[in-house]
Protein 1
Amino acid sequence: MKVLSVFGTRPEAVKMAPVIKCLQAHPEIESHVCVTGQHREMLDQVLEIFDIVPDYDLDIMKPNQSLSHITGAVLVEVEALLLKEKYDWLLVQGDTTTVMAASLAAFYQKVAVGHIEAGLRTYNNYQPFPEEANRRVTDTIANLLFAPTEQAQTHLLEEKIGEEKILVTGNTVVDALQYILANLAGGEQIEMEMKEGARLVLVTAHRRENFGEPLVQICQAIREIALEMGEKVHFLYPVHLNPNVQEVAYRELADIENVTLAEPLAYKAFLYWMSQADLILTDSGGVQEEATTMAKRLFILRETTERPEAVSSGYAQLIGTDKERIKKELREFLVGDMWVSGEMTDVFGDGKASERIVEALLSYRPVLG
Ligand code: UD1
Ligand code: UDP
């Protein structure tokens, strides 16, 4: 059986890596990897840490690229690849524009699509934008849908997607996390002068719907709390390379002693700092899952989440992007009792999702017409 895994951004690479390891180890499978290069540096960081060498690299990234550019380039280039080589499955993960466009190219060529992390929903196409629409298009096309949780499976069944096409696997992010944590010796050094006893808050923010005013509010809340609480708190913010994020983060936060702005961290270093953090502040999807798995307290900087399991498990809280609300929640957290992380949780999976996915690809016969 011949499988082509297609991905393009940092989070897809993290969540696809354990699946690729599993595919490569299977004697009956010929596994090929195609990266679109929707991300460049942030993708390459992950490929390196998991030691994955792509067979094809479409290298499509342009500075401040548009959604239409990504869609067009991926559609045309993946189609060319599918015309050149015959695959039994095209495998995608998540909800980026790479995922949506690669699935569409496979659909047009009648190549079966396996969608990892199917069934996540907010039912609002603008939150997150454009990911909600991307994942719904991909789920419509997919021949096998790997739902990470029971909740995701329920969404798919409600949308009348055939039961026989859906498998609950757990999220492959847990497989990736376990793989790295097993080898997480010591911390990765970054330049950071943190006062003894300060509480560490790890921050990430990059969503398109938060560009402009919401991101300004997030940064100003961090700025004002950092100044107000002084030595009691230290913020570490590895800044996403999107120019819309870089510009605001460095303008608002570069000059504050107890805020460290950093380049995007290599995955292993990021997990290390996550393990050290007292609190995580994020609008990321993957970080919500990882923080919950690591039993960390998490404030979600969004109005809604397609990962309600993080909230119902008690680890995460949806706090939005209003400056005063973020400041209030931060103040309460920082003066309250210290949060002590417990054991790892299995809210998002048990670390065996990749094995289940590979077995299903081998045994399922897709109907293509
Ligand atoms: C993309 C995904 C989003 C995902 C996020 C993960 C889409 C539409 N968006 O958003 O779903 O949550 O990745 O991080 O699919 N850049 C670099 N180097 C990099 C990466 C990005 O310079 O390694 C800069 C480039 O100027 C690029 C811009 O960031 O044009 C935007 O990248 P893009 O992939 O379009 O959007 P993201 O905001 O990263
Ligand atoms: N991540 C990383 N370095 C960083 C920030 C995040 O390796 O500096 C990892 C994080 O652990 C998670 C993934 O990147 O696995 C999430 O990517 P991102 O937030 O860009 O995308 P999303 O999950 O929101 O689509």
Note: The chain has a mean pLDDT of 96.
Protein 2
Amino acid sequence: MFDRTKSFETLKRLSHQLVDLTQGSLTPQRIQEMVLQGPSFDLLYAAERVNEEILQALFDLAHEAKATEKMGAMQDGEIINEIEGFASEHRSVLHTATRDVFGSKTAAPEAKKAAELAKREIDKLEHFLEKIGDRYTDLIQIGIGGSDLGPRALCVALQPFHKPGRKVHFISNVDPDDANGVLESIDPKKTLVVVVSKSGNTLETLTNEEFVRERFKKSGVDPKGHFIAVTGEKSPMDDPSRYLASFYIWDFVGGRYSATSMVGGVMLGFAVGFDQFKAILRGAHEMDVHAKEAAPRHNLPLLSALLGIWNRNFLHLPTVAIIPYSQALLRFPAHLQQLDMESNGKRVDKQGRPCTYATGPVIWGEPGTNGQHSFYQLIHQGTDIIPLEFIGFRKSQYTTDLDIQGTTSQEKLLSNLFAQSIALAVGQANANPNKVFLGNRPNRILLADRLDPHTLGALLAYYEHKVAFQGFIWNINSFDQEGVQLGKVLAEKILALFASKEDSDAFTLGKAYINKLND
Ligand code: G6Q
């Protein structure tokens, strides 16, 4: 158990002698030294409330939890998605196989099989994209949750890399305004529709598919020539006769980990082209290998996971703000909300026992500098301490920039990032209590050269592995989602009341809400 380990006790003791960043201890030397270089990214963690003794105890904790071995077991395809002794998904977790497609060297049989399946789909995608050429100008992706958030975040992040003349749209919410809004702006004759549902039975997605099919038919366009399915083999959506093409995903890739499978691949291949999609996969694969093979002290996602655990379990900070200083990462915090909270928002451990310690924090965020002009007030002076993870890039995506009053916009962006990191850590004394900044707000910076497809793939995988490492150390199952399943079942029950339009005792509480519609 996480809180019965020797290192847990040591860390608890160390948390009583906290590193005070306000007393001149955030020095240039500390900033120089507390940097870990990994694939595509450097992690600058001088503004975290840790010292060498705490770091050593955190790495001991990872060692006691066998975090590195568990990452190896995951990537080798061992069955880790389970709750021992109880009915559970009982699956391997191999999203890493979806990018191990460039002459995979894995010897583990399950991982090898998964990589071969993934390679088959990628080859299919390459031929499909060649075949359609420039026939279509627009693509609509219909999907929700994991079949929307990650792919959408990647698509938005790569706008400057989109092929000219191609537009991508997303419909996820079952709110009819979502579908109508998109349908207003496209010409069905020139539009591909990718329907993405691993289970093939998600209410929102199937409803939106029918909604869009009807509109195509009304415009005299046969959906068969335009609709593509991405789904699980043998799912209710696995009916190639209804689609222009069908691509597959498997049980060993969880929804929120599926952006690099065909769930994101078909749309991204269309948007940025096949080669750039491959660059995303290469970037992610590099981070996968790093997470699996780098020694703990050099392991970027592991260090980040441990710093998060320090803040969560020993400084008792319940939320984390992720602030990219990059407009392109506008949708990335929304993806990370799902990735982290659906994975680690768990209250029982892998053996089904209630956790006696805190697990996943609340994750939220918004790009900087915009956030600075809104919720940063609470971050600087609120009664809760919010740890921050900043993401920054040395260069902008579009290479054009302008020198205004001696600095470029990119320099202004980065100086805001660094200034915030320092101010939050160091604080500010003042005789006026309203102008006092207490400081000691822990934060770290993930820094890369430029947000291109390769770097974005690495960023995506970095967060996946950070979340997985935290789950391994907390001894929880990061790969199931009973809370999300519950919502799907309940919605179906109340929907049955709408459909029957008559009194029924099927779900009395739901009926009470429905009655309110007529008040
Ligand atoms: C992801 C979740 C969830 C899922 C959606 C869509 O990890 O399980 O967000 O992705 O509910 O599911 P389908 O792809 O099966 O439609």
Note: Residues 144-147, 197-199, 202, 205, 254-256, 342, 481, 484 surround glucose-6-phosphate (CB under 6 Å).
Protein 3
Amino acid sequence: MNTYDAIIVGAGYAGSVAARALAEKGKKVLILEQRPHIGGNAYDERDEYGVLIHTYGPHIFHTSSEKAYRFLTRFTHFNDYHHEVLANVHGTMIPVPFNLNSLAIAFPAEKAARLREKLISQYGMGSRVPILKLRESADPELQELAEYVYENIFLHYTAKQWEQKPEEVDPSVTARVPVVVSEENGYFQDPWQGMPEGGYTEMFEKMLDHENIDVRLGTPAKDVLQFADGKVLVRDDAAGELQDYDGLVIYTGEIDALFDYVHGALPYRSLRFAFEHYEEDSFQEAAVVNYTVSEDYTRISEFKKFADPAGQGTTIVKEYPQKHQKGLIPYYAILNDENRALYQQYKAIADRYPKLYLLGRLAEYQYYNMDAITARALELVEEIG
Ligand code: FAD
Ligand code: UDP
């Protein structure tokens, strides 16, 4: 074990990008991954009908980070898929984020024209206005618009996703889907977006294909690593003897689990995915349809519409949010002051280990898109490697 310069826990974006960057600096790296596959939550695979599905929910790549884009395009080519989402509002399909096209669908022509002018003069063409900010507008008509969007796009979807009102969740969360003063229907505004040709898993396979990287699948960190009194101990197999380890450790799993939940469990939201297959060419109008006023699921994604047309019929997935509990996958950190304070208690324990680095959605207890965690992993390796 001490022949490895670094042991990385987790083979998702955080762990895989860090591993490759360290390997290219000549470091020998071992990755421990508890799942039977690489790629973390971005893992994709072909189902029995040959359709490329995203096992842990729909992942669409988009970025303004040249650093992340350049790095990832060494291992894949992103196609020109442009992500657009529709909301099903009582059977009417409205583009989301709510924009000037949505306005024209949701309101009678004369009113829509007036609201359009008000939005443009108040906020400027091309601006992105978080719903909570639009609700503060002094103009009664803009307030009415804000109430419409709040009620029909945010309130019920957010209740399903978080069991909270939009104003109760961290403002950064709802700000990801602002009201957009534009006629562009895209879900993201980043200059680079697309889906990896051949899929995410293939991209990860290429990233991890390096002589300095070994990957052990089906291996929870605890089988190999122990943390006690500021010292890291390792063993080769479950029966092996513990030895001191003085290399780097990059941990991308749940930080509360790492320290045996001594301060209690960090709260998360989880999801249940229900996959369905249909012997039809098309199930719905867009790759993703959000159910913002009805149903128990938040959205339906239809994989073939992500620009990989292979496979027979069409496969969809419905996302049912649920409370997180032991045995489920923690998908979303619930960001608020209390939970951040609890996180800091775990961080304080981690800080006692000088060569332990926390990286990623779970270890840092924060929201990261794929590009953001890629850029962060590269930065971390520049800092420490
Ligand atoms: P993960 O992908 O969670 O990887 C962590 C890995 O560590 C996992 O493989 C896990 O099994 C392993 N692990 C954990 N603990 C241990 C342990 N003790 N021992 C061994 N292994 C362990 N981002 C976008 O940019 N665009 C999108 O469209 C998008 N859609 C999303 C949709 C959903 C439903 C979700 C939940 C997320 C989405 N994301 C999206 C975010 C994206 O999933 C994350 O940016 C990415 O997964 C973060 O990578 P990570 O390595 O931090 O975490
Ligand atoms: N949201 C909503 N209605 C929508 C889309 C998003 O209320 O039609 C809110 C909801 O609270 C969600 C948040 O905005 O959790 C962020 O949405 P995003 O699509 O970024 O969520 P993710 O893809 O990360 O699940």
Note: The chain has three domains: 6-38+208-265+334-384, 45-84+268-332, 96-185.
Protein 4
Amino acid sequence: MKIGIGCDHAGLELKLELISLLKEMGMDCIDYGTDAPKSVDYPDFGEKVSSAVSSGGIARGILICGTGIGMSIVANKFPRIRASLCNDLFTAKMSRLHNDANILVIGGRIVGKDLAKEIVRVWFTTSFEAGRHLNRLNKILHIEEKIKGSGHGTGTSQTR
Ligand code: RB5
């Protein structure tokens, strides 16, 4: 499976651990950065991975920042992205079974490396259950279409 991984400075150490694991798992893994401990802005790296998954260039992604919150916010802006912040095993499993999550987000300052590796293993080996959940995902797609056609996002931005 072709996947992408990205992080900010707070996720770099964990990302390097996970890349080794992903290679062991036989994944074709593209690293979208960051690749130095210098402080960077998580949206820049969240965008690269999310955009690649959204456009179909890669099948799935992993994003890591300090808490996972910022990366989740960024990723879920993209069409067809179902990013799930999974800092525990149960959420990781459910995000695949029920939500068919295509981006896994982890908080590098929240989760230790051993648990993070287990989260990744579970996330990649759990299949979507479909059934009633498929209907719900189709409703999310429908919401995306409605938002696209409604002019949302063309108003004044809330910059501070
Ligand atoms: C960076 O200090 C931190 O804000 C970022 O990694 C992330 O936790 C944001 O949600």
Note: The first strand starts at residue 2 and ends at 7.
